[in-house]
Fold each of these.
Amino acid sequence: MEGFLNRYRSITVLLLVIFAQLLLIAVRVKNKQDVRVIRVWAVTAVSPAARLLEGLRGGSTGFLHNYIMLHDADGENRRLREENGRLKLDNIFLRNELNRADRAQALAMFQARTASKAVAATIIMMGAGSNSRDVFVDRGSSVGIMRGMAVVTPDGIVGIVRAAYPTASEVLLITDSDFAAGVVTQKTQARGTLKGDGTPTCKIDYVPTEDKVEVGDWVYTSGDDRVFPSGFPVGIVKSVRPGQPFQDILVEPVGLKAAQEDVLILTEAVHQEIPDTPVNNQPIYIAPPPPNSNSSSPVRELPPGTVGTEADRLRTLYKTVGEQQNHTYGEGEPGSRPPDFSKLPVKPGTATGAQGGSPQPANPATPPPGTQPPTARRSNQAAGAPGGPPKE
Amino acid sequence: MSSSGRILLSSQREGQVSRFRVWVIFAVPLAAILFQAYVPMFFQFLSFLEMPLLVVMYFALMRRSQISGLLLGCVVGLAQDSLSKNPLGVYGIVNTLVGYFAASVGARIDVDQGVVRLLLSFFFYLFQQVMYWVLARALLGQQLAFEVQKTLLLGVLNAVVGVSVFHFLDKLRETA
C-alpha cells in the first residue's frame, strides 16, 4: 500500500484535492430547484445503490415469499384436491344411499303388494366369464335360497338362481344365452319362450305367425316354466319380423335396468293376473288446465269423483243420469220403464283417447303413450303398479 | 535553456529543478491574485490577463513537482474563487489541474526555452478556459458560450505576456 501510494502519490493527491474542491462546490452551489448540489450528488450517488440494494432485498424477499407462498399453494391445492375427492366420494355415497333407500322402499312396497314371498338380495359381483351374463347376490342357501328360484325387481324379472351357495347365489340373467322362460304378450296373449342371446335384448321363440304381436306390446311371464310366476313384467317388444313357422320377436327387458344392486328372490312364487291395462296407459294424474284455457274437453262434463276404473266411471255416470230422472236403482219392477240413457252427458267412447275403440279409464285426462311426466311415473311406481314403464 | 538545445529531456534528472525562496512562493501568487482582482478595476483592458494561471503554471513548470504544483494551483484557485462570484472550487479545480499537468510537462520538457513557454502558456490558457467552461456547465448549470476565436486570441496574448512574466520570475529563482 505504501509503495502504491508512493508510486501514485501525485495523482492521488491530485484526486483528493479535486474531490475536496468538488465538495466545496457542492456545498455552496444550488441547482434550479434551490437544492444544494451536494444533496443532489449525494442522492444521485446513493439512490442507485439504495435502489440496487432494495431491488436485491425485495427480489430476495419476494422470491422467498413467493416460493413459500407457492409452496403453501401447492400444499393447499393438494389439500383441496383431497377434500374435493372426499366430497365427491361422499356425494356419490349419499346418492347411492338415496338410490338404495328408493330401491329399498320400492322393494318393500313390492314385497308388501305381491303375493309371492321374496328375499331381498344385493348384487355383489359379476360373473367372471366373458360371455356369461350372470351375477352373484349376497343371499344363499342359508336363508332359503334354492337353485331355480326366480329373481325379480319391481320393474320386471331379472333372472334365475343358477346355483345357491351358503352365503351367496349365482343368478343367471335373462340376457344369458342359457336363459329361457315362458312369456305371454299382454295385448293378444300370444305365448312364447323368452330366450337370452347374449345381447342386451332377448328374443321370444315359438310364437306362431298367426299370433298378432306388435311393437310396443308388453310381455309378461306366463308361469308355464314353473319358475317365474305369471304376471311379472318381462319387457317391451322392440321388433317383430314374420317367419316360418314362428315369428322373430325381440324384447327389451325392463327388469335388468332396475337390477343394478338390489333384487328380490322369490322363495314362494304365487301366480298373479296379467294386468289388462298396458303399463303406458295406466291412470296417472294430470293437473287441470290453466283458467283461461279454451279447451272444451268433454271430460269436464263428467261428474266429480269419477276417478277410478272404467267400471267405476260408467257406474257413476249412469247413476247420475238415473238420479236426474228420479230413478232409484233396484226398485223398479221387471218390465218397468228404465231411465233414458240416450242423453248421457258424454258418450263413454269419446271421454277417453281412442285405443282401438276400447274404453279407457275415466281419468281427468289420459296422455298419449310416452308423454307422461317422470313424476307421474314415479308415483306410478310408488303406487305399486306392476312393472311400470321402462326407464328412459 | 539546456546546453544541448533539445526540448525533450532524456530523464527527469536532466532537467534542473528551480528553487525559490519561500516568500517568493507566497508573495508572487498573492500579487497575481491581487493583480487579477484590482488592476482590471483601473485598467479594464488588462482584464484578459490570467495572472494567477500564469504564476501557477510558471512555478509548476519550474519546480517540476506535481504535488507542489497542484497544491499551489489549488490554493491560488481557491483564492481566486474567493474573490469572484464563483463558488469555491471552480477555479481551484482548474488551477489544480493546470498545476499538476504543468509540473508533469515541466518534468519532460525543457521549459527554459521561450518558444516552449509561449506554447505552454497558450495551451494551458486554452486548457483553463475549456475546463472552466465544462465545470461551469456541469457543476454550476451555467449556459456559458465558448467563443473560440476570442479564446484563441486571448490565449495568444496571455502567452506573450506569460513569456514576459516568466522571464521576470526567472530573476527570482535561487541560483545554485
Note: The longest strand of chain A covers residues 117-126.
Amino acid sequence: MRSCCATSRRGFLGLVAGGSFTFALAGLPGAVFAALPGERRFVVVLLRGALDGLAAVAPYADPRYAEKRGALALKPPGEAGGAIALDRNFALHPSLAALAPYYQRGEFLVVPAAGNGYQTRSHFDAQDLMETGLAAKHGESDGWLNRALVLLQKGDARLGLAVGGAVPLVLRGKVQVASWEPQGKTPPDSDLIAALKPIYARDQLLGPAFAEGLKAQSFAGAVLGDDSEMGKGMGFGPKAFAPLAAAAGKLLAADKGPRVAALDMGGWDTHVAQGAETGRLAQNLEGLAAGLDAMAQAMGPVWKNTVVVAVTEFGRTVAVNGNNGTDHGTASVLLVLGGAVKGGRVAGDWPGLANLQDNRDLRVATDSRRVMKGILRDHLGLDRRDLDARVFPDDAALAPFDGIIRA
Amino acid sequence: MALSNAAAAVVASTRFGFAAKPGELDLIAHDPRGWALAQLRGAAAPLPGNLPPASRMVALMLEARRDKSADKKEFNTQMRDVYLAEIEARIRQAAQTDAPFTERLAHFWSNHFTVSAFRPFVRGFAVAFEREAIRPHVGARFADMLLAAESHPAMLLYLDNAESIGPDSIGGIRRGKGINENLGREILELHTLGVDGGYSQHDVEALARILTGWSIAQLQDSQAGSFRFWPQIHEPGPKVLLGRTYSEDGQREGERALRDLASHPATARHVAVKLARHFIADEPPHDDVERIAKVFRDTGGDLRAVHTAVVETKDIWDKPFAKYRTPDDLVVSACRVAGFTPEAPMLVQSLKNLDQMPFYAPSPAGWPDAAAAWVSPESVLKRAEWCGNFAARIPNPPDPAQLADAVLGEAMPAETLEAIQRAPSRRDGLALLFAAPEFQKR
C-alpha cells in the first residue's frame, strides 16, 4: 500500500519530526525533491474567508478614511495602540507588529487594493478563481501554481508541497505534489464552531450538549473574539497557523525538500464583531503575523531566497455593517514577504475611498495575477510567454508586475 | 405526491441506508419502499479484496501461542495489517455500495453477534467473522445465522467456548478441567432469548455443557484454525435446557439446541426490539415491536420477511432524523456523501477518537443503539471537529449547498442551508453540512 522509504526521506523527516509534529504516513513524499534554479522558494498563503484589506493595511491618510470606516478605523500612527506607519499614506494594523521589522529591513512589500476583478462576492467561486487564476469557472480545473510547476518540473522529482489537510486547488493538477500535515487532529476552525452555534441551538437533542461542551472547553472566548486569556491560550483558531507555518518553513529549508508550497489560514469572514485594534480580526492578524514570522525563522539562511505571498479571495465592505462587522467586498491587500523581495515599500496604485465600487467596496487597482506573474518570472525564472499561454491563459494580456524581486 | 416521495426518499436513504450518494435520492424517490425491499433478496455482498479467511489468522495465532519464546512482533504486525485492510474494505464498501440497506443490516447483525478485539487476540479475524458468519445469512433464516455465528472460531475464542471442557468427558477427567459458561450465557442473554427471556442459571450451564467440544482445529490438523468438534471434551449424557431434554448426540446436540432457541418466542421478541430500536426509534412503539415479532414467529425466523416487516412500518416515512448516528455511522455516511474514503489508519484513528473503534465494542453486548449512550458535551464537539477535519481532507471538494440538496433535499432546514451557502470556504460549508444536526441524525 505504501511505498518504502529511502534514507534521504528519513533524513528529511527528522527535520520536523520533533515536538508535537510528526509526519502523517500517508502524505509523505516518496520522491526526492529536486533543486529549483538558484534554490529559490515560493510560498502561497491562502487567506480563506476574505481578509479585510483596509484593516490589515490602513490607508490612514486617505481623506475619507475615518469617515468611511467609522468604528473600524484604526487609531492613527503615533497614538498609543495605534497603527504602525509604513509610509505617509499606509499603516499596518497593530496586530501585524511582528511584520514591521521585515518592512524596515526591506523584506516586506504591500500591494493595496489588490484583487482579481471578480465581482459576485461568493466565497466558493472567488476562491476557485483565486486558485485557478482563470477569469471564469470552467468546471473541473487545475491550479495556477500547479501549472507553474509543470513548467518547472524536471523528471519525477516533486517540487510542490501542500501543508495542512487536502491539497488546495491552487496546487492541484497534472504535477503530483507532496502533502504534509501535523499528526493528530487539527484544531477546528473558529468559523465552523461559530456557524454551528445558532444551528445547534435549535436542536433539542444536540443543542444543550453543544452549548455545554463549548463552555467546558472554553471555545467560546476564542470563537466570539473576546480577549479572555482562557480563550487565547487554547491554541484554537488563529493560534493554529504558526506551528503549521513553522513546519512549512522547516520543510522548505531542507536541502532536498520542496521548493514551492501552499497553505491555508481561515477565520477571515468577519461579518460579526470584527473589532478594530483588538477583537476577532485583530487576533487572526496576530496569528498570521506570528505564522509568517515563524516561517521565516524556520527557514534560516534560505529565507534570503524566498518569496511568500498572502492572498485572499476578495476584500470586505468599507463601511461597518449592522453587527459591527463587514460584508463581502471587492479589493483587499496582497502581502509579499521574503528575503528575495524588494520590499520596504507600498507598491501599486491607490483608487481612493471617495469613489467606491457599487458605492460600497474598494476598487481593484492591481490584479493579483500580475503580482504572481511578476514573481513567477523574476523569482522562479519562468518565461513570459509560458506565463501568458499556460499559467494564466484567460488573461494573457495582464502584464507581470515589475520590480517585486531584488535584482 | 412527488414531494412526499422526495421526503420518503430521504427517510429511506438514511434510515435503511447510510446517506444518499449524489444522484441517488432521485433514484430512490421513484419508489422509496421498493428501493429498500429490493435489497432484501439475498446475502450481503462479500468485501472486495484478498482478505484472509479467519481460519488462516487463527492458525497464525495458534502458532504464535505455541512458541512462547518467539518474538510476537511479526505476528502482531500481521494482525494489525489485516485488521486495517478489513476495516478499510468494510467502510469503503458501505460508502460505495448500491445496496446500502443490505450493508446496514450486515453491520446491525454483526453488532448483535458482537466479536470484539477488546480481547486483543481477536483483532486479526474479528471482521472475517462478519464476512463468514453474518454476511452470507443476512437474507436467510435467523437460525442459520445463529449457527454460523456460534460455530465460528472467532466467537468460540472470543467467548471462551474453545476451551470449555465437559468435566465428565475423557479430556475433562484426564485434565481435571471444566466448562466455561461464557458463550452459553451470552447466547441466551444477548443472541437469542434476551435477558428477560425466562431462562435460569441452570439453563446457562446446560447450554454450556451442550456446546462443550465446539472448538478449533489444532495446528497439526489440515483444517487448522477452522471449527472442529472435539468428542473427547464433549460432556456426555442428556442435558435439560428450558425444560427440554437433549439426549447425547455430540455436535448435533448443540445444533438442535440452537435451532430450538432460534424459534423461541422470546427470541422473536428480543430480535424485534433490537431491529425496531435500530430502524424505528430509540424507544420503539410497542405495536411495531409486536408486529415484527409476529412475523418472526410466523415465518420461523425468516430474516427476509422480518426485515420486510421493518420496512413496512407505517408512520416512519414522514419522520426523518429519528435516530442519532453512531460515530461509525457518521463516518461511513460522510465518506459516502463526499465520495471519498480516507485510508485505514486515518479511519481507525477517527473512530477511536470518537469512541467507537471498529470491532472494539467494550462488551459482548455490542455498541449501544440509542442517542442517550452517544450524546455528551464532549462527544458532540468532537464530532463537529471531526467533520471539520474530514471536510478539509476531501480531495475535490464539491459545492456544499448542492451536495446538501443532493443528500437531504427539502429535509435540510433553510437556516442551515443558508449557513452552508454563506460559509467562508467549500471546506467550511462541507463541515457545516456534516456537522448539521440533520446529518448527525438519520
Note: The first helix of chain B runs from residue 2 to 16.
